[in-house]
Amino acid sequence: MAHELELREQTAALNRALPAAGLVTMHSGNASVYDPDSGKLFIKPSGMDYDRITPSEVVEVDVRTGRVFGSNKPSVDLPHHLFLYRNLPDVRSVIHTHSNYATAFAACLKPIPLCLTAIADEFGGEVPCAPYVGNEDDEIGRAILRYRNTAPAILLGNHGVFAWGPTGKAALKAAVMVEDVAKTVFLAHQLGQPQALPEEEARKWFDRYQNRYGQQPSILPLPLKQAG
């Protein structure tokens, strides 16, 4: 029970973080967290104001069967979250937004090009854009699987953004970074044509950021020996 409360708290916090990060307006997005041990996911309730989302309001769903527990209706995007958890075994959190700059690229059916080291760091390549698909059954989930690349995020043509990760924090970071680089690339287009970063250079930046950036316990300095 304590673990379930922790997951509910995490899901509520992730959803409240979406408007705080400028990724959604009104009800235009959702976040979920998946626990493979119990086979349950926890997701935003449909149409609920973000500031009203508490752990008790979060909706619990059985990933294998799709059974919904409790009286609250889950997000209408539940089928897409379910599809991703069922088909991407390392994913533990999924976030969907309609953030402005990233969705502007999606409206034009354009990927976010690999023209910044920040894009290489976080995504390893361009942020792809899938063509428009309908919102029935598994159409969106199948499009994500078909068109995704190394990036933990994708644009959906004429729709918005999906991001994911091994933790809620990682999924939120991916969603934030998609919007951040989309804004920068959009501004770059006002000045001229953004220049592509060579793939071999992108691989170097991606490896550095993913494997050597930040505090690595294995490379912390050893304690000094006492004199004498």
Helical amount among residues, as a percent range?
Answer: 25-40%
| Rg, Cα atoms, Å | 19 Å
Q: Main sheet, how many strands, which sense, barrel? A: 8 strands, mixed
H and E order = HEEEEHEHHEHEEHH
What fold name goes in the CATH topology slot?
L-fuculose-1-phosphate Aldolase
Catalytic activity: L-ribulose 5-phosphate = D-xylulose 5-phosphate
EC number: 5.1.3.4
Keywords: Isomerase, Metal-binding, Zinc
Cofactor: Zn(2+)
Helix and strand layout, with pairings?
Layout: H1 2-20, E1 30-35, E2 40-43, E3 59-62, E4 68-69, H2 78-87, E5 93-97, H3 100-107, H4 117-123, E6 129-130, H5 139-147, E7 153-156, E8 160-165, H6 168-191, H7 199-211
Parallel strand pairs: 6-7
Antiparallel strand pairs: 1-2, 1-5, 2-3, 3-4, 5-8, 7-8
InterPro entries: Aldolase_class_II_sugar_metab, Aldolase_II/adducin_N, Aldolase_II/adducin_N_sf
Domain Class II aldolase/adducin N-terminal: 9-186
EC number: 5.1.3.4
Describe it for me?
Helices cover 39% and strands 14% of the residues. The chain is of the alpha+beta class. The protein has one domain (2-210): Class II aldolase/adducin N-terminal domain (L-fuculose-1-phosphate Aldolase), CATH 3.40.225. Strands 4-3-2-1-5-8-7-6 form an eight-stranded mixed β-sheet, with helices on both faces. β1 (30-35) and β2 form a beta hairpin. The longest helix has 24 residues, at 168-191. The radius of gyration is 19 Å and the shape is globular. 39% of the residues are buried.
